[in-house]
TrEMBL record:
Family: Belongs to the G-protein coupled receptor 1 family.
Lineage of origin: Eukaryota, Metazoa, Chordata, Craniata, Vertebrata
A GO molecular function held by the record: G protein-coupled receptor activity
Keyword terms, alphabetized: Cell membrane, G-protein coupled receptor, Membrane, Olfaction, Receptor, Sensory transduction, Transducer, Transmembrane, Transmembrane helix
Organism: Muntiacus muntjak
CDD domains: 7tmA_OR2T-like
Protein's cellular compartments: Cell membrane
Record InterPro entries: GPCR_Rhodpsn, GPCR_Rhodpsn_7TM, Olfact_rcpt
Name the UniProt record assigns to this protein: Olfactory receptor
Domain of life: Eukaryota
Gene3D superfamilies on file: Rhodopsin 7-helix transmembrane proteins (1.20.1070.10)
Record PROSITE patterns: G_PROTEIN_RECEP_F1_1, G_PROTEIN_RECEP_F1_2
Length: 315
């Protein structure tokens, strides 16, 4: 290929989400509201789990770190996008794009693995309740957490050099609102077959390994629930797992489209819609789903409010 078609690393231009002048202001307000609500909701979730002794259990320990990951990766994407709209430009340097890509892949990869391993927690709680304190000990929880962060870091360190070392075409216009893998690959020039194959294998591992854990865990849960004679026991078991399953379906569904489908099925508009769903909306839905469908969290919130009222009355 002619060397004149390619340029060395320099600034990129993000087209962003706010391309329609008529609706851009309204869309900006919606995204801004979602961002601040997600930050507050996840922050409240972490605070409640930390301060309330009734929530000092393995499930809520993992859930607090899920909320932390949500805060981190939505902060990697949305503030830049909102600032670009206010400034009227979407320029991002090669270094900043690489850093955003690296952090995003790390946080999202960690969430993939953490959601998968959280299914094991639900499996143990329902299928081996008497051994739950042993099988989900404090040490095991930290091992699950460490494994999740290790998986996310591995994704970042493998995929970032592969993607960002590609020769990019003369047009550095990224038809997206952040530096995401499929979009960056479309911007690259030359033979991308090897890069696409390595990225595909990494994404298969990142998605299918934790998803296999989810399938195996919930298969065991369904078998155990089917064998239960008590209707109340079945209802409680489904209530225990339903919140986690909703989060898994929402998060993995959008991510499977983004990273598993061949490039021929992708369009810039579809990529933006699915990316918005699992990078912006899901961090807001996660704490809402777990709090609205979880009596323990609601009761913990009431206890904290009652404690605050009692403290205020003393003064």
């Amino acid at each position: 290929m002619n060397g004149n078609n390619k340029t060395f690393p320099s600034d990129f231009t993000l087209t962003g989400l706010f391309t329609n002048n008529k609706a851009s202001g309204f869309l900006f307000s919606i995204i801004c509201a979602i961002f601040f609500m997600a930050m507050i909701a996840n922050g409240v979730m972490i605070f409640l789990i930390y301060i309330d002794p009734h929530l000092h259990t393995p499930m809520y320990f993992l859930l607090s770190h899920l909320s932390f990951i949500d805060i981190m990766y939505i902060s990697t994407i949305v503030p830049k996008m909102l600032a670009d709209y206010l400034e009227g430009e979407g320029t991002i340097s090669f270094i900043a794009c690489t850093a955003q890509y690296f952090l995003y892949m790390g946080f999202v990869g960690a969430e993939f693995f953490l959601l998968g391993l959280m299914a094991y927690d639900r499996y143990v709680a329902i299928c081996n309740p008497l051994r739950y304190p042993v099988l989900m000990s404090h040490r095991v929880c930290w091992m699950i957490l460490a494994s999740s962060w290790f998986g996310g870091a591995l994704d970042s360190f493998l995929l970032t050099p592969i993607t960002m070392s590609l020769p990019f075409c003369a047009s550095h216009k990224i038809n997206h609102f952040f530096c995401e893998a499929p979009t960056m690959l479309r911007l690259a020039c030359g033979d991308k077959a090897v890069y696409e194959m390595v990225m595909y294998i990494c994404c298969v591992m990142m998605l299918l390994i934790p998803f296999s854990v989810v399938i195996a865990s919930y298969t065991g849960v369904l078998i155990a629930v089917h064998q239960m004679k008590s209707a109340e026991g079945k209802k409680k078991a489904f209530a225990t797992c339903s919140s986690h399953m909703m989060v898994v379906i929402l998060f993995y569904g959008a991510a499977l489209y983004t990273y598993m489908l061949p490039q021929s099925y992708h369009t810039p508009t579809k990529d933006k819609v699915f990316s918005v769903f699992y990078t912006i909306i899901t961090p807001l839905l996660n704490p809402l789903i777990y709090s609205l469908r979880n009596r323990d969290v609601a009761e913990a919130f009431k206890r904290v409010l009652a404690r605050c009222r009692g403290t205020r009355e003393e003064f």
